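Action item from last week, closing it out:
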Amino acid sequence: MCNRGVGMLATLTSATLLGIDALPVDVEVDVGIGLPGYHVVGMPTPAVKEGAVRIRGALGQIGHDLPHKKITVNLAPADVRKVGCAFDLPIALGVLIADGLYEPTVVDGLLVLGELGLDGSLRRIRGALAAAMLARRRGLRGVLLPEASAGEAIVVEGLEVYAAAHLGEVIAALAGDGALRPAQAQARAPRRAAALDMAEVRGQGVARAALEIAVAGGHNLLLAGPPGIGKTMLARRVPTILPPMRHDEALETTKVYSAVGLAERGLIEDRPFRAPHHTVSTAALLGGGSPPRPGEISLAHNGVLFLDELPEFSRAAIEGLRQPLEDRCVTISRAQGTVRLPSSFLLVASANPCPCGWYGARVRQCTCGMAAIERYRGRLSGPLLDRIDLQVMVQPVELAELRAAAPAEPSAAIRARVIEARARQQARLASFGVRCNAEMPPAVMRATCALDAAAEATLAELHARRQGMSARTVDRLIKVARTIADLGGDDRIARDHLLEAAQHRALDSEPVVPVSRTAPAAPGATASASPARRS
């Protein structure tokens, strides 16, 4: 909203970011009599205060200047810290309106954001999508944004989105020499075919099956084994079998990327795949800073977080994953307040069995002492491993299989089964507000994952064989079995599903022999691999 009072006061509606959410800010500009000066109050950051220099330069490019008067800018509410450079445009317009040069009718009911260059150009801002969602929620008629950021806001329905590339365009509209330009949807580049494909992975039938289960049900996965056997190769091909994002998931993901300035072409339609280096700091991985910003786990929201060489990450960083893996969000508390950032991601991690990497391998002799091996494995705590549903030991591939001419099963076939399994989950879980099997809370799991007498007996046998499993382990075992049943097109969890789920959580336990199925084997699969599922 914008209005002008008797005291030469102009008020425009704008917004600031807190985490990934936009908070409303009223930009009040008073141009009055007194010693000439420019004052900004309302907890502005230095970037906001420095806007006076940018505004003066931009106004000079269109034949105006800051009035040689006392200019006071109040950013309300005064107890919220204002960050970023997006207040340049509303302050510049407020100064001209409060000075009596223009009427505010054109920008009434609009939320205004924009960073100014010295040449008057309007530059990309962070959080355009969150600002558009705020405007719709508050009942405003629309938003006015830099052209480079308007593509994010245009995906919000029921809102007028106006774009400008230069301050002069907005001033011309205020002067009645034109109209604000409605934003146009940006043409999307055609999707290129994926450069990677699961057909390139030879052998590794058990690991491939575990990868398919993980993606189909949203289950976390740890691949352990000697170096050079395909752990990273498998993980890098996860994006090729991910199911497509729904519209609500795309909005959530784009909102996170918009808050950090990475949503360059509007709505993000592909699931993110983040693979930070093991030297990443705890704040960069989990989120933090001042003001709090999303970390890698939030940038992986609705996608995949790949942590290669998991034990090499700092202990504080990987132990900090425990709460986000459970709650699917991360809470960052600071003296100024608390921010909750979404972090519902599929964790895929890899690890060597020891520092040299060859413990238990048939290829090379391990040179590590038992004390070194225990210290290395101790970097991954029990509570963290308990939150990883699938833990698979990846073994070397025989040379004959590695050099075989026949390609393995391609990503397209696996992805089709994953999409079909997700559709079954949606039909079963939509009424509970749950998106996939891994997200089921205990009450939903008990309502949708009933076990028959044979399956209950099998679960009791597994519990006794593993010398007692935690309650979380039992729940996650049942969830994985439910996903295996979905991949097989079965309505109920059977004994075979539980045994296969246990096989994929046998990293430190006696392996369970996989149960054969009637489905044909995938091309290139070995006899030791889990049988392929019906497509």
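Closing note: The first strand starts at residue 3 and ends at 4.
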